[in-house]
Amino acid sequence: MQRNEPPYRADQVGSLLRSQRIKQARLQKASGEISAEQLRQIENEEIKHVVEKQKEVGLQAVTDGEFRRAWWHFDFLENLNGVEGYEKESGIQFHQTQTSSHSIKVTGKLDFTNHPMLEDFKFLHSIAGSHTAKMTIPSPSMLHFRGEIEKGIYDDKEELFHDLARTYKKAIRAFYDAGCRYLQMDDTSWAYLCSTEQIEQMRARGLDPDELKALYSQTINDAVADRPEDMKITMHICRGNFRSTWISSGGYEPVAEVLFDGLNIDGFFLEYDSDRAGGFEPLRFVKRKDLQIVLGLVTSKFGELEDPEEIKRRINEASRYVDLNQLCLSPQCGFASTEEGNLLTEEQQWAKLRHVVEISRDVWK
User: Fold this and answer.
1) Which of 132, 180, 216, 318 could crosslink 175 through cysteines, CB 3.0-4.6 Å?
2) How many domains would you assign to the chain?
3) Is 94 inside a domain boundary?
4) How would residue 194 be classed by pLDDT, with cut points 50, 70 and 90?
């Protein structure tokens, strides 16, 4: 009952705690003490080390830990044609804390051409060996949800989402041509659409939640429509993960049918490490027998290991709605959605991932 294609029975979302050497090198680069080339060499060495650690704990899919990024989403988005990064007056508000004030805006027509993360992936692919090199990028929804659109660029909403889908279609093809067979799109907007509090804030911004569901699902389906058959695309849905804090609460019921019976992707990484995610009942909308559901039952927010028997009990509970053969296990999120990282040690991080592997081996013998 193990799987030989992604997502795997024991999997991961992607980001890992930045090593102290990476943190120091980024500070040195910012102060002009080292060059961009020197920083990249240090990143290469640290990524090689972290890939070997992932193999060592038993994972089949390896990532570069997002070691070259400051953010899980902005670094990718602001390197699309027509998008720029800028500093706002305030950051994204989490419970008890706030991110730095960086953001993005659309200043021209969207496109995907010479994106620097193609080279980032090629390096990962070159050191993955017999393991699967997994690439993580933000979902197209995040450009609209988090970005500002300058006036006069896309006054026609239909044109915006058409260009956004086309841009991502080109990105998917480019990563495939670079050797990528496992691509994950990260998306927080769907979890916001499960939160009464966040829906109220959306409406205050002039957004229609029902329209967003339709626009985002159609854009994603358009983007993945022509992907090669041997490329697996999954989506990670997150309620916020910054220095072990969160943003939104609410079960998947408001978006379950659109997601599980509407998006033409291969799997979902679902946050299920706390009661903020609700129960497994929304999984009844999983109708396709080829759709994999990766249960994020192990938290990345703190270091204490979960009781393995409790994790197994919850997997069994989820199997009442989705066949056990369509379920997998992972942490609920990455360990460092931003370069600051969550509040646990690297040793605890590796123990968490090893925990996922060991539990999965017991469940799917």
Assistant:
1) 180
2) 1
3) no
4) confident
